Amino acid sequence: MKRRDFLKLAGAVSLTGCASTIPSRARVVVIGGGFGGATAAKYIRMWDPSIDVVLVERESGFTSCPMSNLVLGGFTNMQEISRDYDGLRRHGVQVVRDEAVAIDAAKKTVRLARGGDISYERLVVSPGIDFTFDDVEGYEAAMASGRVLHAWRAGPQTLALRTQLEQLRDGGVYVISIPLAPYRCPPGPYERACLVAAYFKQAKPRSKVLVLDANPDLTSKAGLFKAAWKDYYAGIIEYHANARAVGIDAAASAVKLEVEDVKGDVLNVVPPHRAGNIALQAGLITTNNRWCDVDWRTMESKAVPGIHVLGDATLSAPAMPKSASMANNQAKIAAAAVVELLNGRAPSPVQIINTCYSFVSQKEAMHVSSVHAWDEKDRTLKALPGGGVSAARSEAEGAYAWSWARTIWADSLA
Amino acid sequence: MRLFIVAATALVAVPAAAQDTASRNLAASCAICHGTEGRAVTRDAIPLAGLPREHIVAQMKAFRDGKRPATVMHHIAKGYNDQQIDSLAGWFSAQKR
């Protein structure tokens, strides 16, 4: 071999090396493949393909909480609301099925349950929620025996609850218990009451839906839900405000409130929740032992530098719901900031939109929508004037709700 | 001379790139209903990618001012000033359909 050829070859090898293993190629690790984490992984790759992105997710696929109440009503199925992670792989995201069990922010590593340690330049934590079961005495034992379900993470519990509703006798009582705000998806429990009632109306008309709300009134779209309950579900849905669940009496099949016990045949008690366990482990929780405060210009944790926290786990900004739309758009704030920071530039604030649809029957829905912008004086995202709810429920908005769902699933995952 | 041209181009290119990033970030939020980069994935959403700039500006202002009836866009359009609408319209009109 001539010396010149050797040099050429060496050059080619080292170039190849540059492309895949040179340390200057930054790696971002994303924990959690829900609306927040999936979107962050995809958009970082889209906006800077030179960054390696590893997504750590414990499930093999994605199941959507939005639209899962339609499964409970029997109006759609789990396949319709599930997606795989192949779309993210096509964006060059390395999807690792594992569970993040610890974060070492000083060493910038994430410990995986099976896969050992993985290092990062910047970390995105989108852990969703975990429940504080101890707030409801007897909950965990009752859940283990199948006596109570939350179905507040779409998946096996969604199907288990649907099965209990199918097996319920005509004339039976379904109880939905709502924790104090803030909780994931403010209108979700009221939508669920509607869709279970819609199922009862057609399949077991003597059955009842009992709503036990820890809050003083409906926390979202109150007027629109109350109108639907009056127009469609009078005599089926019964609403109780200031009714906070403090325990489960599994033997009596009852939800214990502060002053009385309420019996039911299907007990769907949503316990209070907080940021997911990994956020607690990593010291990201800043407020009320539940939520993670962030810099809303970058989604960077106010507790631990170099870590961006997204979605339901965050201490929500004023008038900001814990919703899929918010998690997806917060992920874009984080993605933009991560790309700027890794390229040595200063990130700028990003204005974002929230849109949430709720069904009140198989076909009819309504929305709440708002735009949130950085406020330099108060140093947070604030809802701008002009947002609001539908004038009325409609089938047109039911179609838009499905369009929103299919689109946000694609925007987050495909 | 050639070096000088390159340098001059770089000088104007930096703010333009920052502006483009700002428009891209502002537009990204619309994707929850209109699809990534404005490429719609359902027939119920209007694809924004490649629409004429003036058309997007006119429709957004009509939604904002209540001149075009809407289910949801009147709530959203009120969150954007003229400059932001122009920035969104410019960015979406430049995207591949």
Keywords:
heterodimer; A: 414 residues; alpha/beta; FAD/NAD(P)-binding domain; 2 domains; 5-stranded parallel sheet; 11 helices; 26 strands; 32% helix; globular; disordered N terminus; B: 97 residues; mainly alpha; Cytochrome Bc1 Complex, Chain D, domain 2; 0% strand
Description:
The complex is a heterodimer of chains A (414) and B (97). Chain A is of the alpha/beta class and 414 residues long. Chain A has 2 domains: 25-131 and 274-346, FAD/NAD(P)-binding domain (3-Layer(bba) Sandwich); 133-271, FAD/NAD(P)-binding domain (3-Layer(bba) Sandwich). Chain A is built from 11 helices and 26 strands. Chain A has helices spanning 3-21, 35-47, 68-73, 86-90, 139-144, 156-167, 188-203, 222-232, 277-281, 324-342, 395-413; strands spanning 27-31, 52-57, 62-63, 82-83, 94-97, 100-104, 109-112, 116-119, 122-125, 129-131, 148-149, 173-178, 208-213, 237-240, 245-249, 254-257, 261-263, 266-269, 273-275, 294-295, 300-301, 307-309, 352-359, 365-375, 380-383, 388-389. Chain A is globular and about 65 Å long. Chain A starts with a helix and ends with a helix. Residues 1-22 of chain A have low confidence and may be disordered. Chain B has 97 residues and is mostly helical. Chain B is built from 5 helices and no strands. In chain B, α1 (2-28) packs across α5 (82-93). The radius of gyration of chain B is 16 Å and the shape is globular. The model of chain B is unreliable at 1-14 (pLDDT under 50). The chains are: A alpha/beta (414), B mainly alpha (97). Chain A binds chain B through residues 43, 46-47, 325, 328-329, 332-333, 336, 340, 348, 350-353, 355, 367, 369-371, 373, 384-388, 390, 394, 396-397, 399-400, 402-404, 406-408, 410-411, 414, and chain B through 21-22, 24-26, 28-36, 40-45, 71-72, 74-80, 84.
